Amino acid sequence: MNIPRVMALFHLFFTSLSLVALFLMAAEVIAFDGLAVWAIVLSVALNAFFTVLWHSDTRKARIGNREAIPATVERVFPMISLLVPTYNQEQEISGCVKGLFNCALKYRGSSEIIIIDDGSTDNTYESAWAVIAALQKEAPHTCVRILKHMMHLGKTEAVKTGANKAMGEYLALVDAATPFDYVSLNSLIDTISSTMKAMIRSEVRLPEHPGIATPPRLVWVYRADALRRLLNEEDETKALQELGA
To answer: Could you give the 3-state DSSP secondary structure of residue 209?
Structure first.
């Protein structure tokens, strides 16, 4: 029950009744009495005042309820972890890390960058840290981690190490040679969320140069639990079928 509205109608009713009484006295339909006239005038004034007061409370309550409901609800993008297994990629890692930063900054949700150095014998690890230290001065809120194997274990083990340390709901797996500047995480997350798949594969087409054929690079995005299940699946064929790959 809307109490302010009921009370406003109540006082409006008595205001109308009092005005009718004054009209009847003026028309000599009922006996004229000076004291009664002043009582009725006072009643009209008080009831009119309370009618306006209750009506104001009703309006404020209606506006308050409308303001309590947000006009638009912003979509919350899930966290994504960017996994980059590397091995002896000292020359490529610098450009890769720069692209990773640019890609993460354009994403509408939270993200983290995880580079897994799979026992490189060159300066991949040191080069990665050098460029990260420089870039984090400009983007201090970008989370970056570098994990290192003491020996070369292979790409699968490198991905498994990164996946087990990742905190994201989705895991993006790419090669260090893929230029992340041309990757849209927003688009990838929109696609995998709308299709309800456990994994999607997207082509990253690079700028074309005259006379040079540049094949597209691939980016895989997995649901975190699906990728971990795949990495721990003894029967790889069965795991791939479960993921719909």
So the answer is: strand
